[in-house]
Amino acid sequence: MRVTGQNLRINGDRLWGTLEEMAQIGPGVAGGCNRQTLTNEDAQGRALFQKWCEDAGCEIGLDSMGNMFAQRAGTDPDALPIYVGSHLDTQPTGGKYDGVLGVLAGLELIRSLNDLSIKTKHPIVATNWTNEEGARFAPAMVSSGVFAGVHSQEWAYQIEDAEGKKFGEELERIGWKGDEPVGQREMHAFFELHIEQGPILEAEGKDIGVVTHGQGLSWTQVTITGKDAHTGSTPMPMRRNAGLGMARILQKVDEIAWSHAPHAVGAAGHFEVYPNSRNVIPGKVVFTVDFRSPELEVIQDMENRLRLVAQEICDEMDLQVEFEKVGGFDPVPFDKNCVAAIRNAAERLGYSHRDLISGAGHDACWIAKVAPTAMVMCPCVDGLSHNEAEAITKEWAVSGADVLLHAVLETAEVVE
Description:
Layout: H1 12-22, H2 40-55, E1 59-62, E2 68-72, E3 82-86, H3 100-115, E4 119-120, E5 124-128, H4 142-147, H5 153-157, H6 167-173, E6 189-195, H7 200-204, E7 208-214, E8 216-225, E9 229-230, H8 242-258, E10 265-274, E11 280-281, E12 284-293, H9 296-316, E13 320-329, E14 332-333, H10 336-349, E15 353-358, H11 363-367, E16 373-378, H12 394-412, E17 414-415
Parallel strand pairs: 3-5, 3-6, 6-16, 7-15
Antiparallel strand pairs: 1-2, 2-5, 4-17, 7-14, 7-16, 8-12, 8-13, 9-11, 10-12
């Protein structure tokens, strides 16, 4: 096997050009993108990606969840492929790089290998997973989840958007429902390049994040019931203020997360207050607590402590409380060999790097259930994502794609 030296790089200008061209499809209103899944804009983005891949000599596959696979042949017909990719769909007010960088870096990897006439034993497949964002059809990472056997296709097809349109019908409407049964592909490994979506790499001046784990997640919906009453005429000792109960519980949520520093996090971002009137004491509140950690035991501890302290607070305040776990997934340890390939690539290329735990969910988290998987991350400005102001530099994109190239080649086995 030929050893690839640090002089082997992708074509950075071409990668940046494809990112900018893709961003013209489904443009946002403030410099970003609105290319939500299974929209006409999504279909246009897919068509452009397919054209680019066909021009690069790839064989295109499309499964029944709309997942796209562009394969560059290997020299061994029996060798399982190396898959690389992410997603082309965006948030309604999304950026130009979240997900898209990972897909187009996979394309650029293939183009660069063609330019350099480099052959690999294992085929290489650039991948676009359908509906990673979950913005239109919740939850997130639906199609990679079906691929990995986490969800059923029948269930996914029935998911409805805010207008009552079904996932399966919209997939067929835009013309991107394939005949290939979902999940039948076997993988030698899967690599995903992504922007960090957090501030650590930029703050520490690191070029590359070597992702060792994906955080586990727990969503607990809490419903507190007190009594609606007039804010002016109800004496303080006679109030059953559900809003105040929520405030006290949220303080405890913060304390619980801090007790598992530095990797655990916790907060609530969803709130419903009833009757939500200026001069009425809230009689009912519903909110969702989001706990995350790379350790399952920590998540379970935070869940249990939330229920205990919330019950204690509500008992003291004569409030009723109910709990419902409405979402979550276990932490994901990525494959040690794939992680090592990414770390080796960063060191070979002279890029500064550090280990990271991904705070967001990614398609790689589901694919890790069925194939050796790892992620590489590059910085983003101020850690901002899911926002039209999301930004990265060309240099960050190129360094991430360079590392992806070398990690894939180490795994795919270069042939003389």
